Amino acid sequence: xxxxxxxxxxxxxxxxxxxxxxxxxxxxxxxxxxxxxxxxxxxxxxxxxxxxxxxxxxxxxxxxxxxxxxxxxxxxxxxxxxxxxxxxxxxxxxxxxxxxxxxxxxxxxxxxxxxxxxxxxxxxxxxxxxxxxxxxxxxxxxxxxxxxxxxxxxxxxxxxxxxxxxxxxxxxxxxxxxxxxxxxxxxxxxxxxxxxxxxxxxxxxxxxxxxxxxxxxxxxxxxxxxxxxxxxxxxxxxxxxxxxxxxxxxxxxxxxxxxxxxxxxxxxxxxxxxxxxxxxxxxxxxxxxxxxxxxxxxxxxxxxxxxxxxxxxxxxxxxxxxxxxxxxxxxxxxxxxxxxxxxxxxxxxxxxxxxxxxxxxxxxxxxxxxxxxxxxxxxxxxxxxxxxxxxxxxxxxxxxxxxxxxxxxxxxxxxxxxxxxxxxxxxxxxxxxxxxxxxxxxxxxxxxxxxxxxxxxxxxxxxxxxxxxxxxxxxxxxxxxxxxxxxxxxxxxxxxxxxxxxxxxxxxxxxxxxxxx
Length: 517
Fold this sequence. Notes:
CATH topology of the largest domain: Leucine-rich repeat, LRR (right-handed beta-alpha superhelix)
């Protein structure tokens, strides 16, 4: 490779001894731009070369003949290349040689526009990309049909979204509903990437005659990667159609009581699923949940709140269909072994791609958590995030069986100080730890945290800790997030000392100023 200084005729010496070399104009580029921008005709290079050759003496050697031929060929190639290049669009869209994964081209998250009635829906510009419909009906959904650029659509009936002992939203005196008649519109947006349905119970009631249309429309959405059917009662037959969504990556069926074992088995046909939530699906048994390990690309799984208590309890009175669905779900939930247990944890310990698992508030036992390490399975131990709030405590020996690469751990229960000793010994890469309400842990247990230099986030809410623990925490200079709310260490002096930690940016849920403290 050569530069300007290597060309013949260039002066030598330091750069200050000569004038800067001006790059020669590129006539080919100039002609191409003139043709492209101003419509000028490019010069006939071939004719010019031929004229010059005609004015020169006849070649006397074979070498000269070859050089002449090469020059003519090169000139002709330049003319053809310039003509083709000048008429080629700036951006060339190549035909893909295989199916394109939509997640390889993530879109910028669009701003959501809220819609409540037909008038507000019709007022939206046609290039609107994200809409949330709250308390609408089929007419409101139909008014969205012209939005051909729509990428994100949320449809909610908030009064059907409550569960367990949570606060409830009172339904209007004459509530409106989105029904199954709206599916052709909902699945008719060609650029739809995410569809979120929450509390729209009647939308989940798809009749036999409507299912083929639903399946065909689902298959015709190549960009749809995320689907939520939360706080609904979709049945097994509807879930059996979901594998028709070819690029489905995320599926949220939380607090959905309409399907049972057959619905879970149907989900195994969604071979591209990476994130799945069955949170609060009280009707699902340990034995069928274990089959989720068969999903080949599963990376995140939420099986929390399957505890027999956190039923969806919307304020709208059940009609005959709703009562039948709820009665069947309750019959299933009355069996022993509901929610994730030994079979599920053993199977998930062999899932080579599973990185995040939440089984909080389940009926599992702490000793069963060791099954997640996958010690006896090829490819086991991939787990990095584990949410294990609650459960039945039967010792802390399980910590030694957890994957050593675990980075985030949430525990809550009647654990002793020995828990933190085991965590410090067996989980050296842990970065986030939540022990909220583990009130048997004392200052002696907290002292083990000082031996874990990779810890970045620590949740010690509702803990009975004293000034001795404060000394431990102040010495943990790598901490970035710390929560001590509702505990003994909540006085002003404690906050002053903790704010001196060099990397701390969130304290008790509040973001600290970025200026030097």
